[in-house]
Design goal:
By secondary structure, the protein is α+β, with helices and mostly antiparallel strands. It is about 35% helix and about 15% strand.
Length: about 350
């Protein structure tokens, strides 16, 4: 049996598919702001709701006074439900001025700049400045093969094509249920990011380019007596990730003591904040990226990303500048160079 706290969203869904309830008696008089809904009209509204939503048998439906609305030809009434001494949150419905139609109207505010829909939060960036006309925010998992595929397509293809018109940042979204070292990798790269944005990107490049090797021992020889022995281990992955982070720290002249302390601490708080943001956006997978607030899922072709960036530029009356196919093709390759080498 449904509880009152669950009634409001169910009514919202139900009335999207049933927008009208026609009178079976004489047409009522026009609605007046502040007036109480007549018993006959309230009864017809209740019949509609009980027919569309599985309310508890003993539930009581309460309809508030008639109020003005933003939709011409309609007023607003507020409906709540009480059952087992619990009352639902009020739900607003539109009621036509002739009393023949009940509907719902949902407004979405699109006045904000789409570039700021997903904030970059001062993350290390590539491409143009934060004021660039296009902002691309990618939710990334460093152990994800699809993320690695997208990453290999992105740089420097986008910067080659668009120059400083696209500002690119990554946010952490490690899928720890299926990628056991993704969280550790995210912590390590962020430890270096606090001292060197360049070092951060070098690590991200390397890990995505070699994710399948992380945790393996290239010098180990197969043991015929242990054919089922794992080729990758989590401890080895942690050790390798820490080492390449320290190596890159040396290359970037980072404070070694500070970096070592951060790596040893493995504080996941900032990563969890990023993951919670992803959860609030209903992200179900990685990679998921936003181009000026528009959401895209998966390792989509780079040509598709170009089209979406072009559209975002045109929306701001900026003509996209084309680059040669040859240059884009060459820039799809991922460097095999180890960070710090």
């Amino acid at each position: 049996m449904l509880t009152p706290s669950r009634l409001a969203p169910l009514v919202l869904a139900a009335l999207f598919t049933a927008l009208g309830c026609h009178a079976q008696s004489a047409t009522p008089t026009a609605l007046k702001t502040g007036a109480t809904v007549s018993p006959a009209l309230a009864h017809r509204i209740e019949i509609l709701l009980r027919g569309k939503v599985q309310l508890p048998p003993a539930s009581v439906i309460s309809i508030g006074p008639i109020q003005p609305s933003d939709v011409a030809g309609y007023h607003t009434v507020t409906v709540s439900f009480t059952a087992d001494d619990k009352t639902s949150h009020p739900v607003d419905f539109l009621l036509s001025d002739d009393g023949k139609t009940v509907a719902q109207f949902v407004k979405y505010d699109i006045s904000a700049d789409p570039r700021t829909a997903i904030a970059d939060d001062g993350r290390p960036s590539r491409g143009g400045p934060a004021s660039a006309p296009v902002v691309m925010v990618n939710f990334d998992d460093l152990e994800c093969p699809f993320c690695a595929r997208l990453h290999a397509s992105l740089f420097p293809a986008i910067t080659q094509r668009y120059g400083d018109k696209v500002h690119i940042v990554y946010k952490d979204f490690p899928l720890t249920e299926i990628h056991p070292w993704a969280m550790h990798a995210a912590v390590d790269v962020n430890c270096l990011a606090s001292q060197s944005p360049t070092g951060y990107w070098s690590l991200v490049d390397y890990i995505h380019g070699h994710f399948d090797d992380i945790g393996s021992d290239p010098t180990a020889k197969p043991d015929p007596t242990k054919p089922d022995a794992p080729k990758h281990t989590l401890d080895r992955a942690y050790t390798q990730l820490d080492k390449i982070t320290r190596d890159q720290g040396i290359a970037q002249k980072a404070d070694a003591a500070k970096l070592d302390a951060c790596i040893a601490k493995q504080d996941t708080a900032a990563i969890e904040v990023s993951r919670k943001l992803g959860d609030s956006l209903n992200l179900g997978s990685a990679p998921t990226f936003y181009i000026n607030g528009a959401k895209y899922d998966g390792a989509v072709p780079i040509a598709f990303i170009f089209d979406q960036i072009d559209n975002a530029l045109r929306a701001q009356n900026i003509t996209p500048r084309r680059s040669s196919t040859h240059a884009i093709s060459n820039n799809r390759k991922v460097s095999n160079q180890r960070p710090g080498d």
